[in-house]
Design brief:
Number of helices: 8
Number of domains: 1
Radius of gyration: 17 Å
Strand order of the largest sheet: 2-3-1-4-5
CATH superfamily: P-loop containing nucleotide triphosphate hydrolases
Structural class: alpha/beta
Order of helices and strands: EHEHHEHHEHHEH
Number of strands: 5
CATH topology: Rossmann fold
Distance between the termini: 25 Å
Length: 212
């Protein structure tokens, strides 16, 4: 008998302000998908996950570097394209699911809305050079930046150093993103990790990703 092709993989993104709980919830979602559905899930972070992505991550977050939001945008896009080519597309073609921390909403919020890069230019950059494959589902963890700062403690990199007003602009842009993207949903980031994890999984189900 001919080999049965693998079921199509799915690409899920968790995003939000620094300290909103992305890493915790990404790990919990991977575990839940594996345990509940027996899925083979790849957990990625962005920028990072590839050797180039991790090197660019170090540059982007280092306090030793002085760069504007335009340069940040180009480097984030380069790291993302490498991750899509090396890890995301091959995983999806094998039928694996991908859960990724951060994606286009971060660039549009941090470098665009908060950093001042024209949004049209960012959208063109991202869709031209890092637009395929696109996520099936984008979950924005919504947490007030003051609460997020209390969670994460002292700033640990040059982007967190940009301060509270900057993070407020990021949070507002993330909320706005969900209003203009049918694959995106806003998840309340308040409460215990278990409570947030239940909301995340319920939203994945509601958007029909696990049922396809």
């Amino acid at each position: 008998m001919p080999a049965v092709p693998p079921s199509p993989g799915r690409f899920i993104v968790l995003d939000g302000v620094d300290g909103c709980g992305k890493s915790t919830q990404a790990k919990r979602l991977v575990q839940a998908l594996c345990e509940r559905s027996g899925l083979d899930v790849v957990h990625l972070r962005e920028p990072g996950s590839t050797s180039l992505g991790e090197a660019l991550r170090s540059l982007l977050l280092s306090r030793d570097q002085d760069m504007g939001p335009e340069v940040e945008s180009l480097l984030f896009c380069a790291a993302r394209r490498q991750m899509l080519d090396d890890l995301v597309r091959p995983a999806l073609e094998r039928g694996q699911w991908v859960v990724c921390e951060r994606f286009h909403p971060s660039t549009l919020a941090y470098q665009g809305a908060a950093g001042g890069v024209p949004m049209d230019a960012l959208v063109q950059l991202l869709m031209t050079w890092a637009g395929d494959p696109q996520p099936d589902c984008i979950l924005i963890l919504d947490l007030d930046p003051s609460a997020a700062k209390r969670r994460r403690g002292l700033s640990s990199d040059r982007i967190e150093d940009k301060g509270h007003v900057f993070q407020e602009r990021v949070a507002e842009a993330m909320r706005d993103y969900t209003q203009h993207n049918s694959t995106a949903a806003l998840i309340a980031g308040t409460g215990s990790p278990d409570e947030v994890a239940q909301r995340v999984l319920a939203e994945v189900d509601r958007l029909g990703v696990t049922g396809r």
